[in-house]
Amino acid sequence: MPENRILTVILMTAVLAGCAGTRLKLHDWTKLPDEQYTIPPYARYLAQYKIALDPGHGGNARLPGYKRGPTGLREAEVNLRVARFLREFLEKAGATVILTREDDRFVSLQDRADLAAAAGCDFMISLHHNSGQNPETNFVTVFYHLNPDFSPVSMDLARHVYFGLVDALRLPQLIEDGLRTDQLVYPSGFGLLRRATIPAILLESSFYSNRKEEKRLSNWRYNRREAYGIFLGLARWAAGGVPHAQRVAPAGVSRQKRPELRYRLFDGITERGGRDTGQQLIFAGSVRARVDGRSAPVQLSPDRAFASFAPDSALSNGLHLIRVDLENLYKNHNFPRTDTLIVAAPTDSIALIAAHTVLPADTSALLPVKIRFLDRDGEPVWDGTEVRVRASRGEVAPELPKLVQGEATVYYKSAADTGRVAVVAAADSHADTLFLRLLSPGQVWTLGGAVLDDSTQKPLAGAAVFLNDSLRATSDDNGFYFIFDPPPGSVSFEAKRRGYASERLRLTIDSTRSRILNVALRANLGGVLHEQVVILDAALDDSSTGYVFADTLTAAAANLALARHLDDTRAWAGATAVLVRDDEPALAVPARIRKVNALPEGWYLKLGYRGWEKDSLLVQATIYPANQMGEEIARAILTSFQELPNVRVELLQNTEVPEVTLTNKTAVQLLITCRRPEVVRRDMPRVFAGIVAFQKRAAAEARVK
Prior knowledge:
Blueprint: H1 2-21, E1 50-55, H2 75-92, E2 96-99, H3 109-118, E3 123-130, E4 141-144, H4 152-169, E5 179-181, H5 191-195, E6 200-207, H6 211-217, H7 220-239, E7 244-249, E8 253-254, E9 261-266, E10 288-291, E11 294-296, E12 299-300, E13 306-309, E14 318-325, E15 338-343, E16 349-354, E17 358-360, E18 366-374, E19 387-391, E20 395-397, E21 407-413, E22 419-427, E23 430-439, E24 446-453, E25 464-467, E26 470-474, E27 480-484, E28 489-496, E29 500-501, E30 503-509, E31 515-516, E32 519-523, E33 533-538, H8 555-572, E34 576-579, H9 589-598, E35 603-611, E36 617-623, H10 628-641, E37 647-653, H11 658-662, E38 667-674, H12 679-704
Parallel strand pairs: 1-2, 1-3, 3-6, 4-5, 8-15, 17-23, 24-31, 24-32, 33-34, 33-35, 35-38, 36-37
Antiparallel strand pairs: 4-6, 7-9, 9-13, 10-11, 10-14, 12-13, 14-15, 16-18, 18-21, 19-22, 20-21, 22-23, 24-27, 25-26, 25-28, 28-30, 29-32, 36-38
């Protein structure tokens, strides 16, 4: 009996010892496991994608302290190493990869976005590492643009990549909102994400401002570990499949103004070999349709394979944008795809309009005829509608005009015989007629022709034509002007247009014969500033006038005077200048930033004066660090001022000027310190000359590209 008890104790001890050996042992989260890399089987779904990797920054090693860690590690170098390792993993999985930079060079944000789009990439990952004031801070952040609804597929990528990085790097800190909007950093978001035309996210994988993390980031093995975490995140995203929708009807053009649209839905799983359950693996409530940005109620077929919808009201003739979004059972969204639908209701009426209906029968008179094509609702027809115009006698050109907002202008050239002429316009199954009367020469006469750019020979719309200093005509969209019964004999003729030198000459009007006179205008400054937009911001305002100069002139008033004179000069050169502040008595900095960010294009120049008692001049230009275009603008303006005697110039690169840092445009602050502003004689010509020099250089570089 005692022997049995001893045996029992021995057995129990053995069992307990065995159980103890299987107990869960927890390790320190921050201890990195041994390196072991493999391409998991689900990574094969990456093979269908072309991916743009964007190693952030680059080419700014000359800037002391710029994007460097405590011991000098450059973020740009780390970003590039991670990108190269990530490319290797992705290519092993079969994906196609491009890098926006292959070495340590500067590439503008616009060029990065353009490279990805031109290469036909499906999405873009911008690789960065962070910096902060607190040297202990160290966590992963993935940024998306604006809000989650802006690009749901970008959110899918961000979610998977975020946790891939968290698992790979084992950083000691984990924030509650690892996915963050870029508006937390800049009001309009990051420049790259704002410019990207494909789904894109920006990674701040860790903080190089943390001394321990900086040391780890300097190790290529750690860079490869980071790349592998990103790779696994992307592979897991791809494994979930990407749904999409394909339009079935109508094909491309609808004669109906409220068409029924039908789409075929794909879950991204079944079609690649997943089990067919008789239904597409799609969340029914996720299917959303929009027509020109407006939601349309969707009807799903029982098998969730088809979606049908119609706009809530009649559409206008022309191009419309259709978008269908959906989400599959892995919570993956479709890539953003916008289909186009053309609504082309038949032509129901045609209106032919001419300023005059009598012309001389001299084979030289040219008469513009504007033609409007309308549907039965009285709305302009689609601009792609085929229209035909002919004349019973004389000539009309073009005979097959192109419509713009349902309108076209043709030009009738008179015949040699007097009498009635029919000008007929037709479209679809409808036709209408304008009747003209040709009179014997000498009863009426005309002067007309085209206003052209002398270097490009392109027609110039909006040119003013004067006879004897009296405005008689304005050139139309085709550059054509028309004057009926001009004064006979010797007259002065002048053609003017903003951005061009006026053309003035004397000519003789013969009342027995019409005249065609084409005029070529020479662009001021060779047209280098044409189509350019500069946003001029006069610093300060009535509530904060700044320095008061000896004659009671305030800095705020001088700033505004400089902006207005620049505006006038740029108008002469053919550029567009936008004044952020003109008559507003007060405009706070946040309001200025919002106003600038709302503008669709242009670069920003903040103008300011400051006083001192010296006779010398100090001109300082401040730009955002490493902004290449901003630096080129600033240097051009500073170089222009250096042509003056007793001038010192400084180029500053910092983030201390809110308007320079927070606007979504290339931005420069120009601060002129002087005893007294000389806006017209000294300062405006120097600023303008700098702008012209910058634009000439930019135009030359564009021609080389």
